[in-house]
Design a protein that fits this description.
383 residues; alpha+beta; 18 strands; binds zinc ion; elongated; 9 helices; four-stranded antiparallel β-sheet
């Protein structure tokens, strides 16, 4: 069967896709600004309503924006395809007028959050619209879930994502694509911990010997924690934030550190969590306390994920392209939640580009057509 479009058949128009993406990018939406995030939520809600989808908008809580769910009116109530995207970005309001002005340089198009991940979210919307324009429907019902706070670990949407995933057969995550026609089929798990050290304050000159420095203890702890990194086993541990002391002439009584852990599988997640929660004092007369745990479970490429990836590869071959996946990536996403529940999950389906979270964030225009085609055909053919 030929896949060449008929003359009067609507085509995926990369310029049209880009224009739509830029409309979303223009509405800046940093995670902690609920009003700003809700601005783009309203835009997306209106667009899906216009397509005839059933829309359910849940008011945000804890200072975050609203969760938006849109479901096709066809396909019944049974398990279908869950499409995940987040509408928040890491870039503060005003970035669009400074370091990330919307602009095109050759194949690269710049803008705040364009790569992570407004392009991906819009591609999913356009893909469905493309099917509808052709008079087609997906075989399965499709639910689009737009998340307001993925960039801080989805604290208010995790339950909703997991509930939704349990009612679906597949999960497509529109996070940024990877270099050279790659998608994501596995991600490390992410743990977050806070270590607090308590010592004893004293005058740094008159009573130095009475003090017990929490900063010194923390320094020793940090050396020990950082040494837990084991690239061979895929474990990284990073002490990313440290605070301590009250004045230069005071032996510090308290210090805190925040720790980021990445692990490739559940066994190592358990092992490393126990190790970090079990940290003991190194010096004398000091106390250490650790709180935290795994924030995102590891996402492993299992048989269901491999089969889904193979379907995506076959679709890419229809347009003469070769789809690959990246080896285990260290970055987490909401795909970790759905994959850990055993739902075949394909991630990194968004536009190709680079510079997520950076001042040179960009997508590649040339990836818009193939990525939109891939998403549209997945929606159309998954059964
Ligand atoms: Zn993202």
């Amino acid at each position: 069967m030929s896949t060449a479009p008929l003359k009067n058949e609507p085509k995926i128009d990369a310029d049209e896709v880009l224009d739509g993406i830029l409309e979303w990018v223009t509405i800046e939406s940093p995670t902690h600004d609920a009003t700003a995030v809700n601005g783009v939520v309203s835009k997306v809600e209106g667009q899906f309503r216009d397509l005839g989808l059933k829309v359910d908008r849940t008011p945000g809580r804890d200072g975050f924006g609203d969760i938006l769910e849109c479901r096709t009116p066809w396909g019944g109530e049974g398990p279908g395809i869950l499409v995940l995207a987040h509408l928040d970005t890491v870039h503060p309001i005003g970035t669009i007028g400074r370091e990330l002005k919307i602009r095109r340089e050759g194949d690269s198009v710049f803008g705040p959050g364009i790569y992570d991940m407004k392009a991906g979210g819009y591609i999913a919307y356009y893909a469905l619209r493309h099917l509808i324009r052709q008079g087609k429907k997906s075989k399965l019902p499709v639910t689009f879930l737009f998340i307001p706070e993925e960039e801080v670990g989805s604290p208010t949407s995790r339950d909703r994502i997991e509930q939704a995933a349990k009612g679906h057969k597949y999960c497509l995550v529109m996070e940024p694509g990877r270099d050279g026609d790659r998608v994501v089929t596995s991600r490390k798990g992410v743990g977050r911990f806070v270590l607090t050290v308590k010592g004893k304050a004293a005058h740094a000159g008159a009573k130095h010997e009475d003090g017990r420095s929490a900063v010194l203890e923390m320094a020793r702890q940090i050396v020990r924690i950082e040494a837990m990194t084991d690239y061979g086993r895929g474990i990284t541990v990073n002490v990313g934030l440290v605070q301590g002391g009250t004045g230069v002439n005071v032996v510090p009584a308290e210090a805190t550190a925040e720790i980021d852990l990445r692990v490739p599988d559940a066994a190592l997640a358990d092992e490393m969590t126990a190790t970090i929660l079990g940290l003991k004092p190194i010096g004398e007369d000091v106390e250490v306390a650790v709180e935290g745990g795994m924030n995102r479970p590891p996402y492993r490429k299992d048989a269901g994920i491999s089969a889904l990836f193979e379907k995506a590869q076959a679709i890419y071959r229809e347009i003469g392209k070769d789809l690959k996946d990246v080896p285990l990536t260290g970055g987490g996403s909401d795909g970790n939640f759905t994959a850990a529940l055993g739902i075949p999950t394909l991630d990194g389906l968004g536009a190709d580009g680079k510079g997520a979270h950076a001042a040179y964030e960009q997508i590649y225009y040339s990836s818009l057509m193939p990525r939109t085609y891939l998403c549209a055909r997945l929606l159309e053919t998954l059964e």
